[in-house]
Amino acid sequence: MNEVEHLAHAAHESSLLPWIILLPLLGAILNGLFGKRYSQKTVSLIGVGSVVTAFVLSTLEVIRLAGLPEGDYLSVDLWRWFSAGELNVELSFMIDRLSAIMLMVVTGVGSLIHVFSTGYMKTDEGYARYFAYLNLFMFSMLLLILGKNLLVLFVGWEGVGLCSYLLIGFWFSDMEKAEAGQKAFITNRVGDLAFLIGTFILLFYSYGSLDFVGVGGAGGLPQTAAYLGDKAPGMLTLVCILFFIGATGKSAQIPLYVWLPDAMAGPTPVSALIHAATMVTAGVYMMARLNFMFALSDVAMTVVAVVGALTALFAATIGLVQNDIKKVLAYSTVSQIGFMVVSVGVGGFVGAIFHLMTHAFFKACLFLGSGSVIHALHHEQDIRKMGGLKAKLPVTRWTFLISCLAIAGIPFFAGFFSKDEILFFAATAHREGSNPMLFVYIVSVVAALCTAFYMFRLYFLTFEGKYRGDKHTWDHAHEEPVMNWPLIVLAGLATVGGFVGLPHFLHAHALEGWLEPIFGWLYEGEHAIFHVSHSAGLEIALMLGSVLIALLGIAFAWRLYMREKLPEAPVDAWWHKLLMNKYYVDEFYDAVLVRPLRATASFCHRVVDVRIIDGLFVRGSARLVGAVGDGLRFFQNGDVQAYVTAIVVGIAAILVVVEYLL
């Protein structure tokens, strides 16, 4: 087997695949164009029904995929999109074992978020517009994960960026929320520019196809990657880093993470959709999809691993002191995506997808749980004004607690298995002739410690102790039944979802077996790139260490926040100011980028546009022509006698001049 044959498998025609993608688009069109005429019940039926139906069809297709020979995939080619020389790009879609996992996560978790939204948004005047945007978001994400080639993926990539702008700034009459949407949109354009440049480079080197799979061991991006790895490794590294910059935008990594915390400006179910099932996972999925490219560049993989580790720790430390319930979860997402990026960087592609899946379960549950709290407390989000809510919100409390246990990595919840796999690869995976990146492992462990602390700080301040808000809000706090069921389902998945990836020493890692046709070549055979320890003792030791770290973080949070009088925040301490101000990164960007750009734009408007272009060239040329006309009007006045006089005087003047010259 050569280095591209591992992605050369048989395609099987799918008739349901286009409908999975088009149903959410149809829902978006109907609610977007006619939603104001529909009753709220009809809007809900269209918005929720389109996504639930897509989930049912997705399940049927994944079951069919599981029955195919290992490595085969389902696909459909709708029509030729465009041709340019030898390049032919089809509007085509595919479901293989990698996209199948993403498909089930996006449609499954997305369906639950849609159901939750019917309760959370029922009093909002923009109900139909909300579901139109939400359906459009689902359509864009499905386009991204099911695209058979890089350009179809990029259309979905841009689509989720647009929808994030629409949903984050959903309440656009509030300028702060509108600016948060703009921030998300503009920040992602930076990453998207790098993505486009990388795509153009691949177009130059491509063998006439940008497909993710080759046919008969030839063609497609795998062959392009193999050629670059052999003939132009520097160019391959550049392309990988450009794509990774794109991923830092969508998946909120350093330095383009700054939009994600502000994404809390949108409705809470939107936060759950962005953070758990759709947009922020796009960068991780894209790198996993292009594993045959990233794996060939040691430099690019090192950059990915280091940036992921630093992001995981950086965001986790900020989360330690946040008081907005959604902001804590927002920085948690940035940190957890950092863990996934670490896994990609050290060669643990299976671990990255595994944590992506489990994170979707517990993070969606956490965000929807925070939405239940916010809804019950009349949109109060400050955890310092909460406490004791387990008495009023029992379902929310238990599901929130389960998800906190999962994200902290407590056995045997979902996050325990996926996080430990990442740490195991970070500690042991290496290339031939190199050593594991222990720096990445150590930084990731410290980030895991912070995660356990800030998540249980959040839980204790919200649900335990005494209520610290006003009595009127407490008296009217209650749960919505329609919002409870999605929480229960997600908490169940956060409890048992990790058992598809049991530790390697048990030889029962079902997810690894499922993804073997996609990633197996990285670790086995003569072309294996990564080497991983098979020591059961080492894996168990690392696992016990990570559990101890999690318990230490929880114990510290218990000691600080499970007592009669809460500790005073050390507001005067330099480190607290640093964390509360998020390391002053936003202020730095504002000083270095935003203000100079606005000053330049203001100068271009006031001086270049108004004075030079409008004043000098546009209005100035008009005034010049007018002045010339006014001067000529003195002579061209229609008086024949004046014309004759002028002619006679002119002739006389000419004669005088000629006489003088002669």
Task: Describe, in plain words, how this protein is organized in 3D.
The structure is a single chain. The protein has 662 residues and is mainly alpha-helical. Among the domains are: 297-580, no CATH class; 593-661, no CATH class. It is built from 26 helices and 5 strands. The chain has helices spanning 17-34, 40-66, 97-120, 127-146, 150-168, 175-205, 220-231, 233-250, 259-262, 268-277, 282-289, 291-294, 298-319, 325-345, 349-376, 394-408, 414-428, 438-463, 471-476, 481-496, 510-514, 516-519, 536-561, 574-580, 585-635, 640-661; strands at residues 11-13, 73-84, 87-95, 430-431, 530-531. The chain has a 3-stranded mixed β-sheet with strand order 1-2-3. Helix 13 packs parallel to helix 18 (438-463). It starts with 10 loop residues before the first strand and ends with a helix. The model has no long low-confidence stretch (mean pLDDT 88).
